[in-house]
Amino acid sequence: MPFVDVNDPERKLEREATDVSSCSSQSISGDSIWSSGGRETQPWENIVGFKAHNAKVIYSTPEASIDPAWESSGHRENCWQQQVVLSLDGGGVRGLSELLILQEIMQRVAEIEFESDRTLFSGELPRTVSTKDADSIAESQTVPTVDRFLPCHYFDYICGTSLGGVIAVLLGRLRCSVPEAIQYYCDIWNGMATKIPPVRVLPGNTSKSDCSSGLKLALDRLLQDQQTQRRVRTEKGYPDGLRQFRSNPALCKTLVLAVQYDSHKHVQRPYLFRSYSFSRTVKTSALNRNPDDKTYNGISIQDVCLATSASPDYFRSHKIGDTKFRDGSKWTSNPSMELFREIDSTHAEVDCPLHCFVSIGSGKQNRGTADKALRPFSSGGFLRRESVADREKKLVHRVLTERKDQAQSFMYFRFEGPNDLVLVRPSEWKTGARKKIIRRISESTKTYCQRKDVQKAIMELADELVKYRRRRAATTQWENYVDVPKTETTRHTCKWCRDCDNVDRDRFIEHVKDAHRHKISGDPRYFEQYRAMLRESQVPSLVAMAS
C-alpha cells in the first residue's frame, strides 16, 4: 500500500487559514533612538566569532510611560488573561541562530530592566524595602548579564518543532537562560557527533542509529546536569521530577510538535506534547491536536525531545509505547499556527487571549550547497521540498498579520533569521569544523540583527516585554508564576491578632484579606497594597539574629 500523507502541507494551511480565530495581529510602533558608542561585553561573545557591536539604546523608563487610565480601567487584571507567547521554527543546527536572536532580545530586556529601577534579575519581586534603600543597594551594580533574565518569566507559552522543540523544552520546561540553552544545544550536537564512528564521517554515510544514541546520551547528560545545578523542589505540592515533561501549570507552559506515524495505515498526523493538561472548550475544533489525550501524561522530557527531532534523514523513528513519532518539521517547520489555535481554544473565555506573539525562524540555507550535500543524486527533490516550506512560512505569516477583528488586536513579531546559512549534518560537525560552523552562524546572525528594521523590532519587543512583566509583578500572582522559593527570611506574623503567626507571604496576604480588609487602602488584588505590611510583619531570620 503506498504511503498516504492525509494532510499535504501545501494545502492544509490554505484550508486552516479560513478557520483561524479573528484576532488581528499588529506590529507595535514606537521610536527607538540608536546612537553609536562604547558598550559592555555583548552576549555574542559567548559564541566564537560573535563580537560586541556599537549600539546603545536611549529610551524612557517603561513604567513612566504607562497611561494612568490603564491602571483604573481593569487592564491590570488583563495582564494575566492575555498571553505572551513564543514560537520557534525547526532547522537543525540553524536553531543556534534562533537562540542568538533571542539572546539579543533578552540583552535588550536586561538593559531596560536595569536602567528603569536597577532590576537585577527577571524573577525579582516588588521590593518591600524603601526606594532609597533599594537604590543604595543597587547603585554600585553594573548592567546584569543576560543569563539573569529568563525567557520563561516573559513568555506564558513556548512552542517549537524538531530541534526548535528541543529549544522550547530548554527554555520553557527546564527554565534555562539563553546562554545555558546555547551551551546545551552545542552539547547536543557534540553528543550526536561523538557517537558516529570515524568510518561513517564521510558525507552521506551517517548512521541513523549512531545519531539517535548520541542524541539520547546528550539529553541524559543535560538532565543530569540540570538536577545537579538547578533547584528542584516540590513547591505547592507539584511533583519535582525534572525528567517528567508535565510541570506545574502555574508556570510557563511548553508545547512541542511531533508527527505521529501509523505504520499499519501508512498515515501520519501532527501530535502536540503539552507540559500541562488540555481540555475541550467551546472553541475546540478538529484543528486542535489530540485534545483530552492522557496517553502520554507521564512521558519524560527525553522522550519528547527524541520524538520531535526524529528526522528520517538522521534519526530512527522514536517509539513511545506502541506508537512511532517522527520529526515535527515534517508536518510544518513553523509551528506558529498550532500555537495560535492552542491559545485561542485554551483561553476561550477571553475575547482576545493574545497580547503578544513572537515567532523566530532559523533563517534560510544556501540552496546550492545544501542541495549537493543532502541529495547529490536527486533531481530537484530537495529544492521542491524547500519551495513548499517557503510557501508554508509565508502563508503562516500572512494569516497572523492579516486576519483582523474590529475590536481587538495583538502584537506580532516575526524574526526570519539570516538567509545565508548552510546545511550541516552531524557527521560534518564531527570532522572538526564545528568552530567554523558556529562562527559562520554567529556572524550571519549578527549581521541580521544589525539591520535597522531588525534592531527597531528587537527594541520595541524588549520594551513591551519589560512593561508587561512589571504589570504582572505588581500582582500577588507573580510569586507563583516565577516559582520563587520560600525561605525563613520571608516569614510573617500579624501584628493585629494572634491568628497568623510565622507564616509565608502568601498565607499572610490571604489572612489580611480575610481578617483585616479594612487595613487595605486600595484594590486588594495588587501587591502594592501589602508592601508596608510585609515589611513591618516580617519575622527576623536566623541569619539576621545571629549577626
UniProtKB/TrEMBL annotation:
- Which ranges belong to the motif GXGXXG? 90-95
Keywords, A to Z, come to: Hydrolase, Lipid degradation, Lipid metabolism, Transferase
Q: What species does this protein belong to?
A: Massariosphaeria phaeospora
Is Hydrolase found in the keyword set?
A: yes
Q: Which residues form the active site?
A: S162 (nucleophile), D327 (proton acceptor)
Q: Mark out the compositionally biased spans (Low complexity).
A: 21-38
Presence of the UniProt keyword Lipid metabolism in the record:
yes
Protein known as: Acyl transferase/acyl hydrolase/lysophospholipase
InterPro entries given in the database record: Acyl_Trfase/lysoPLipase, PNPLA_dom
- What's an example GO cellular component term for this entry? membrane
Sequence ranges of Basic and acidic residues compositional bias: 8-18
